Amino acid sequence: MIYGTGIDLTELARIQAMLTAGLKLPEKVLTANELAVFNQYGQKRQVEFLAGRFSAKEAYSKAFGTGIGAQVGFHDVEILDNAAGRPEIIRQPFDGPAWISISHTDQLVMTQVILERGN
């Protein structure tokens, strides 16, 4: 049974502007494991990766029903790619399965998260 679903759309240019401005967005949004992956990429892929994780965590918090804040923070959710390259939610505050999809264009990243509760 679906507990919640959330979607988010993030502009890559907005994330790029924050990085260019010297804001500590990667450290704010990414867990240590995600940051290690981020640091392996070149600039363009870093923007895509960071925008994807930012958007996915926003979508997760919407599915959880709270938005980003006291109950769900950016570091409470960890998303890493599996061996096939598919993103998976590795750590989360919800006690059921969580499903994620991340899709990019040259300008946007769109994410969807579905939280599932057993019958």
Automatic annotation (TrEMBL):
Its cofactor is Mg(2+). It is found in: Cytoplasm. The keyword Magnesium applies. GO terms for molecular function: holo-[acyl-carrier-protein] synthase activity. Keywords: Cytoplasm, Fatty acid biosynthesis, Fatty acid metabolism, Lipid biosynthesis, Lipid metabolism, Magnesium, Metal-binding, Transferase. Mg(2+) binds at residues 8, 58. Residues 5-109 form the 4'-phosphopantetheinyl transferase domain. It is an enzyme of class 2 (transferase). It comes from the Bacteria. Pfam families: ACPS. The keyword Nucleus does not apply. This is Holo-[acyl-carrier-protein] synthase. The lineage of its organism: Bacteria, Bacillati, Bacillota, Bacilli, Lactobacillales.
